[in-house]
Specification:
single chain; alpha/beta; Rossmann fold; 36% helix; 19% strand; globular; binds adenosine-5'-diphosphate; binds magnesium ion
């Protein structure tokens, strides 16, 4: 057995190329590979023999190849591999499309294990495009039988390869060291980490997945809360700058806004102002559904900080959003003559003349001079010193701010006043039940904006089938003629990275050519240069561009009140929480807005059959979106729908950083909290558990601050 920190290159069949691909997914060591967990499973019911086959169900067969050959279908322009397979009870026809190498891999007389569905076509039974693997009497199939793990991939890697690698290193599962105290495992009747890892990669039955998930769920929540436990302890020893409430100025500012604040906005602002007036550092979470108006609340807190002649920073998860906040701040705070700057890895801009033009430490110079710095999350991960930073606001905080809070504590942000730490506000649209927030966030307080600004109409949401797409396009055309604008989101392609960008480009071509030749459209994706993205967003805001065709980068925060159409292609591939976020990009102004959920076109990879993909499950999920406008309701349904076989995946991402746990796991949250309390009674610094301490510090360092 190997050392877990050993490079994956030391494994058989991993050469330079494969190593690069794995590295792309963050897998460098054996340990990384071990913790690359499947995000769902495929299930193939074992079928003893060809006399017992079931039609249209995912089954596994063990058969012999009697005959295999390729033929060209000129009409369909493809290669078809046909095979006859048999066992003692009968024989069966199998076909594959456009995989000519199959007839080289599989030979007459080979024993194979096949997984897939058998279909009936005019009385003939055919298994189309099954997954296959050669077997012999000593080997058990790993790709085709029982519960088969499905992993996230990068292009050029296959499920089979990844499974093979993980199987190879599986003896190492025994070497993983347990983080949780033994007594905790016993008290909570949890299996240990070694067994949990084995079960998560190679479950034999549903219960294995269940048991493993229970373990990891507990571990995630335990670590999360242990972090907040230490954070709270540390914060209790810290001091913050007192920011006096400049009531008159704040009132004037609120009166100058183009709208009246909602009651919840007023209440939240007040809660924050009262907090930062004290000299113990605030840790507050501002929660409000998409479009509820969180930004203005943050700006009120920021204004108060600046009026106290102290610095503030405002961070967003994407460049696009940071730029948007910068523009809003410039506009709303115009008359105060504050020095405001935008800082991200690609962009540096300010509304004031910099005293020095030395490009090298421009960040440093900006942070010494500006009153308000707006940027991406990377702002705090860099080693920057501030003048007198007293308030930090983080927008769209899916990670709940514990790690970032810690980061800020650790950083020597303020040169002059090393003994103070900034007040901290994080904002999220993730719905959090109040009862839970108290348990989960330990030291943090919660403000919620529950009601949306008055004048808002519900967003009309519709599921659009392929047949009705043209009608929908006509409608969009009409809306644009009326002066409105639209977003089109391209499908998420689950397992392979960068494919989204391709689909955005293709969608653009298609629409430009066939549907909206006259309309100004632009594409947008995460890999574009910041300046390019910004140009597109500002053209869109100025209504010069009518349609933006985008990957999910548009997901968070963007605010364009004139946009009334959100069309999501391949909607069945997204999770409800994410769809809700997309939908939140419209309905932000006075106009009636629409959200169209378009289903993927059925890709017929089996041209001989009328293969109807079963959409009923996904449409029932999408129906929920029609029915509910509220994020909390949708989050609950999303969770119910995770269903069996789907432990997590891209579908869940963006909602929380937990993979197994969720904020609705009240029982486990409570149990892990109780454990921490119990353990801390005799050992408040967890000195008996150095591994645990190491894990949470490591975790903090590893947190990606995008
Ligand atoms: P989110 O909570 O999703 O971040 P934003 O802060 O972006 O929402 O606000 C959404 C839109 O609503 C913005 O255009 C903002 O100017 C506007 N807005 C905020 N508060 C109100 C209000 N009380 N009345 C009307 N419009 C508002
Ligand atoms: Mg926002």
């Amino acid at each position: 057995m190997e050392n877990l920190e050993k490079n994956i290159k030391t494994l058989p069949k991993i050469g330079d190329k494969t190593e690069k691909k794995l590295e792309k997914m963050g897998i460098k060591t054996i340990n990384d590979l071990i913790f690359h967990f499947p995000f769902r499973y495929e299930k193939y019911e074992f079928c003893e023999n060809l006399g017992k086959i079931k039609i249209n169900t995912a089954i596994n067969l063990k058969v012999k190849i009697d005959l295999i050959r390729n033929k060209r279908s000129f009409r369909k322009k493809m290669t078809i591999s046909e095979a006859i397979v048999s066992d003692d009870h009968g024989s069966l026809e199998v076909i594959w499309f456009n995989q000519p190498f199959i007839s080289k891999t599989l030979k007459n007389g080979d024993m194979v294990s096949l997984a897939g569905k058998i279909m009936a076509n005019n009385g003939r039974l055919i298994m189309a495009s099954p997954i296959y693997e050669k077997i012999n009497q000593y080997s058990e199939p790993i790709h085709t039988k029982g519960i088969v793990p499905i992993y996230n991939l990068t292009s050029g890697l296959t499920q089979k390869q990844l499974r093979f690698f993980i199987k190879k290193i599986s003896p190492n599962f025994l070497k993983i060291t347990e983080y949780l105290p033994k007594e905790t495992l016993e008290r909570q009747s949890l299996i240990n980490i070694n067994l949990a890892t084995e079960k998560i990669h190679f479950p034999k039955k549903d219960d294995d997945i269940e048991k493993a998930s229970e373990y990891f769920k507990f571990l995630e929540l335990f670590l999360f809360q242990l972090k907040s436990y230490f954070l709270k302890k540390e914060l209790e020893t810290k001091r913050a700058e007192k920011l006096e409430i400049k009531l008159n100025e704040i009132k004037k500012f609120i009166l100058s806004l183009p709208f009246e604040l909602t009651d919840d906005q007023k209440k939240s602002s007040w809660e924050i102002l009262k907090d930062i007036e004290k000299n113990n550092p605030m840790s507050r979470l501002l929660q409000g559904d998409v479009g509820s108006g969180k930004t203005i609340v943050a700006l009120i807190a920021i204004l108060n900080c600046l009026l106290n002649k102290k610095q503030a920073i405002f961070m967003a998860p994407t460049e696009i959003l940071a730029t948007q906040h910068y523009k809003t701040a410039l506009k709303l705070l115009e008359k105060y003559n504050f020095k405001i700057a935008l800082l991200s890895s690609q962009k540096k801009e300010s509304n004031f003349e910099l005293l020095s033009k030395n490009k090298k430490d421009i960040q440093q110079i900006i942070c010494q001079q500006a009153d308000l710095i707006i940027g991406t999350h990377s702002l705090i991960s860099e080693n920057i010193h501030f003048k007198n930073l007293s308030l930090v606001v983080i927008d769209e905080q899916h990670r709940f701010g514990v790690s970032q809070r810690q980061e800020i504590l650790k950083k020597n942000l303020d040169d002059n006043k090393k003994e103070t730490t900034p007040h901290f506000l994080s904002m999220t649209a993730t719905p959090i039940p109040r009862s839970l927030s108290l348990v989960l966030f330990n030291g943090s307080k919660l403000s919620s904006i529950k009601t949306k600004p008055k004048n808002r109409l519900d967003i009309k949401t519709e599921i659009v089938s392929t047949e009705r797409k043209n009608k929908m396009y006509e409608f969009i055309n009409q809306e644009i003629k009326n002066g409105r604008q639209a977003f089109i989101i391209c499908p998420l392609i689950e397992e392979i990275e960068n494919s989204e960008i391709k689909s955005v480009k293709e969608e653009y071509q298609k629409l430009k050519k066939n549907i909206f030749p006259e309309i100004e459209m632009s594409i947008l994706h995460g890999k574009m240069k910041a300046t390019e993205k910004e140009q597109i967003m500002s053209d869109f805001l100025a209504n010069k561009i009518k349609i933006i065709i985008s990957t999910s980068v548009i997901e968070v925060g963007i605010d364009v009140p004139n946009a009334t159409i959100m069309l999501i292609e391949g909607a069945e591939r997204f999770g409800l929480a994410q769809l809700h976020q997309f939908r939140g990009r419209v309905g932000r102004g006075e106009y009636q807005s629409y959200c169209f959920l378009s289903l993927s076109e059925t890709k017929n990879d089996t041209p001989f059959f009328d293969k109807k993909i079963n959409y009923s499950k996904s449409t029932s999920r999408l129906e929920a979106l029609k029915k509910y406008q509220n994020g909390l309701d949708l989050a609950k349904i999303d969770l119910k729908n995770r269903g069996s076989g789907n432990i997590y995946g891209k579908i869940q991402s963006g909602f929380t950083n937990f993979k197994f746990a969720s904020i609705f796991d009240y029982e486990t949250i409570k149990k892990s909290r109780d454990e921490i309390e119990l353990l801390s009674q005799s050992d408040p610094n967890f000195e008996k558990y150095p591994l645990l301490l190491k894990k949470i510090t490591k975790n903090i360092e590893e947190t990606h601050l995008e």
